[in-house]
C-alpha cells in the first residue's frame, strides 16, 4: 500500500491510498479517514454510479461526525479502472458501475470482482495497515452503493454489526438500474437483489434506510418492495422517506450525522 495524499481533517487524517488487489487484478484507490482518537470501529461507505473513492470523501460530510465517535471510515472505489479494462459507453455500466458483485460473465469476469474486493482484499489491506477491530465493522452506501451495503451484509451474515443506506437500489432485478448490469456481469440479477435476499435470508443486523420523497430516480429504487419484504420477514429496520430531498449529496450530507450516530451506537 502506498500513500497518495494525507490531509488533516477534524483533528484526524483523511488519507488516499493505493494498493494492489488480487480480486480485480489492478491497483485500487481508496480513501480512509482516521480520527484523532480511533476506537477501532470501522464504517465502510460504498458509493454510487459514476463515483470514485472521492465523491463521498469530499461531499458526504461524514468525517466530522466520525471524529466525534472515534470511527474510522473507508471510501472504496466503485469498480476497477484502466484503459485496458472492459468498459461501456453507458454511465451505469462498466467502470464506475460494478454493482459490487463478482462478475462471472465475459468480458467482466477477470477484473470486476468487487464483492471479493470489498469483503476480502480491501479489509486485508486495511486491517494490516491500521490498528482496527475486525469485530466492530459496519457498512453503508448510497444508491448503487446502498445496494452493495444491503446485499453484502445479507450475503455475509455476522460480518457487519449494523447496516445503513442512503437512497439504495433495493430491487435491482425489477429495475433498469440492475437488470442490464447484473445480467451482463453475472447472468442472474435475482441472486443479487436486496428485496429477494431479505425475503429469503433476512438480515440479522439492525438497518437504517433514508430515501428522499423527491428522489429523481425513485422509480428505479424499489423501496416499497424492499419495505414489504422487511415487513414480511419481521426484520429490524427503520426506513424513512425524507420529505423534499432528492438523490444528491445534499441529501446524503443532511443525514450523514444520523447514520454515523446509528452505527456508533451499534459499534460501541
Ligand atoms: N449522471 C447520472 C446520475 C448519476 C448519479 O446520480 N450518480 C449518483 C449515485 S447513483 C452520484 O452519487 N453521483 C455523483 C455525485 O453526486 O457526486 C445522470 O445524470 O442520470
Could you describe the 3D structure shown?
It is a single chain. Helix 6 packs parallel to helix 8. Helix 4 links the parallel strand 6 (137-141) and strand 7 (162-166). The protein is built from nine helices and nine strands. It has a nine-stranded mixed beta sheet, sandwiched between helices. The chain has a single domain (2-267), classed as Alpha/Beta hydrolase fold, catalytic domain (Rossmann fold, 3-Layer(aba) Sandwich). The chain starts with a strand and ends with a helix. It is α/β, with parallel strands linked by helices. Bound molecules: glutathione (GSH). The site of glutathione has 13 residues, from helix 1.
Keywords:
268 residues, Rossmann fold
- Content-based structural category: alpha/beta
Query: Can you tell me the CATH superfamily?
Result: Alpha/Beta hydrolase fold, catalytic domain
Looking at the overall shape, the CATH architecture is: 3-Layer(aba) Sandwich
Structure summary, number of beta strands:
9
Nearest-angstrom radius of gyration? 17 Å
Q: Residue ranges: pLDDT <50 for 5 or more in a row? A: none
User: How confident is the prediction overall: mean pLDDT?
Assistant: 98
Bound molecules: glutathione
- Number of helix segments? 9
Termini gap? 29 Å
Amino acid at each position: 500500500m502506498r500513500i497518495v495524499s494525507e490531509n488533516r481533517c477534524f483533528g484526524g487524517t483523511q488519507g488516499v491510498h493505493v494498493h494492489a488487489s488480487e480480486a480485480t487484478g489492478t491497483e485500487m484507490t481508496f480513501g480512509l479517514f482516521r480520527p484523532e482518537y480511533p476506537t477501532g470501529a470501522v464504517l465502510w461507505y460504498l458509493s454510487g454510479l459514476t463515483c470514485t473513492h472521492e465523491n463521498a470523501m469530499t461531499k458526504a460530510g461524514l468525517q466530522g461526525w466520525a471524529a466525534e465517535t472515534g470511527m474510522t471510515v473507508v471510501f472504496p472505489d466503485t469498480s476497477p479502472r484502466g484503459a485496458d479494462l472492459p468498459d461501456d459507453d453507458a454511465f451505469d455500466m462498466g467502470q464506475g458501475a460494478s454493482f459490487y458483485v463478482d462478475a462471472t460473465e465475459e468480458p467482466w469476469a477477470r477484473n470486476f470482482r468487487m464483492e471479493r474486493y470489498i469483503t476480502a482484499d480491501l479489509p486485508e489491506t486495511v486491517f494490516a495497515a491500521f490498528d482496527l477491530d475486525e469485530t466492530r465493522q459496519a457498512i453503508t452506501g448510497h444508491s448503487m452503493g446502498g445496494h452493495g451495503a444491503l446485499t453484502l451484509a445479507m450475503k455475509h451474515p455476522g460480518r457487519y454489526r449494523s447496516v445503513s443506506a442512503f437512497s439504495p437500489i433495493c430491487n435491482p432485478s425489477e429495475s433498469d438500474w440492475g437488470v442490464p448490469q447484473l445480467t451482463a456481469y453475472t447472468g442472474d440479477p435475482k441472486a443479487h437483489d436486496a428485496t429477494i435476499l431479505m425475503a429469503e435470508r433476512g438480515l440479522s443486523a439492525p438497518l437504517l434506510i433514508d430515501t428522499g420523497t423527491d428522489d429523481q430516480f425513485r422509480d428505479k429504487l424499489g423501496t416499497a418492495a424492499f419495505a414489504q419484504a422487511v415487513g414480511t420477514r419481521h426484520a429490524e429496520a427503520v426506513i424513512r422517506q425524507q420529505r423534499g430531498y432528492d438523490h444528491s449529496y445534499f441529501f446524503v450530507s443532511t443525514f450523514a450525522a444520523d447514520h454515523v450516530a446509528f452505527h456508533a451506537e451499534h459499534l460501541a
